[in-house]
Design a protein that fits this description.
Elements lengths: L6 H4 L13 E8 L3 H12 L4 E4 L15 E2 L7 H8 L1 H24 L7 E9 L5 H13 L4 E4 L10 E10 L2 H14 L3 E3 L4 E5 L4 E5 L4 E9 L12 H4 L1
Parallel strand pairs: 1-2, 1-10, 2-7
Antiparallel strand pairs: 3-6, 4-6, 5-6, 8-9, 9-10
Helix pairs in contact: 2-6, 3-4, 3-5
This protein binds flavin-adenine dinucleotide.
């Protein structure tokens, strides 16, 4: 069988940021060079914060290099359940945060002229089964009540019939790696440090904190951001057990 490779990784150049070679001092050390780490780094870099991003492998090659590339406030059927579980106020905060994030990515793309195939498109969740129509209708009403651009439809340009769908207008898609590699290059040119093949193995908490890497080199930083999806440093929350 042919090797399966992410389209986003296959259509972009490999990065070649160096391994950490010396102990360094920064204001913020960011562990993990996926969309969480690189976005955090970009936003801090814009505010003049001295920072370093380290990744155990190559940046933007983890989960962020393997997504479906949609930037949406629609995530399957979410809002009816969120209102039920957390109430309208929290559901509204979640909805607004999601819509704001789409605008933020668009702003970053436009401000920096990033060529990453960013495009506003609608997003749909559809059903082909009669029994799910009610759920789709409920989701449409819930999303609409939170001022999301949601509407019900039973027509989609698909080569098969559907029973019903919730459409969210003005959502987006992009090429995640083109976007992230451009952001990494911007922050590096503006003085941020990026190290690849540099795994964080420990944090010695203090003022500053000392982030220890697998080569033994250390980064001292007032703040450390774990953008690794699963925390590599977990004391004392034991969140690995919940994950
Ligand atoms: C199949 C799939 C499709 C998806 N589609 C979408 C989508 O269409 N739209 C959407 O919004 N979301 C989507 N998601 C979710 C989204 O991709 C993730 O939420 C997002 O990419 C997570 O980004 P991240 O930066 O937090 O993590 P990652 O991208 O995984 O980055 C974490 C980085 O941390 C590094 N790391 C880990 N441990 C260490 C360590 N100890 N030291 C140094 N570095 C370390 C890793 O090497 C990695 O590069 C999808 C997820 C999957 C799996």
């Amino acid at each position: 069988m042919d090797r399966i490779i992410s389209y986003w990784i296959d259509t972009t150049q490999d990065t070649s940021y160096p391994k950490i070679e010396n102990d360094i001092d920064v204001d913020v050390a960011i562990v993990g060079g996926g969309i969480t780490g690189i976005t955090t780094a970009y936003l801090l870099n814009m505010r003049g914060v001295k920072l370093a991003v380290i990744d155990a492998n190559r940046i933007a090659k983890g989960t962020s290099g393997h997504t479906t590339a949609k930037i949406t406030s629609q995530h399957s059927l979410k809002y009816a359940k969120t209102i039920k579980s957390f109430g309208e106020e929290k559901a509204q905060q979640y909805a607004t945060a999601n819509e704001t994030a789409i605008d933020m990515v668009e702003e970053i793309v436009n401000e920096n002229n990033i060529d990453c195939d960013f495009k506003r498109v609608p997003a749909y969740v559809f059903t082909q089964e009669e029994e799910y129509i009610k759920k789709i209708e409920e989701e449409t009403s819930a999303a609409y009540s939170l001022k999301l651009p949601a509407e019900y439809t039973d027509k989609l340009e698909l080569p098969f019939a559907i029973k019903g769908a919730v459409k969210f207008s003005n959502q987006a898609q992009f090429h995640p790696r083109k976007y992230l590699l451009a952001l990494a290059s911007i922050i590096e040119k503006k003085g941020s440090l990026i190290f690849e093949n540099t795994r964080a193995v420990d944090i010695q908490e203090g003022d500053p904190h000392i982030l220890v890497t697998d080569s033994g080199k250390k980064i001292s930083a007032s703040r450390v951001v774990q953008a690794t999806r699963y925390h590599f440093f977990d004391t004392p929350r034991l969140s690995f057990s919940r994950l």
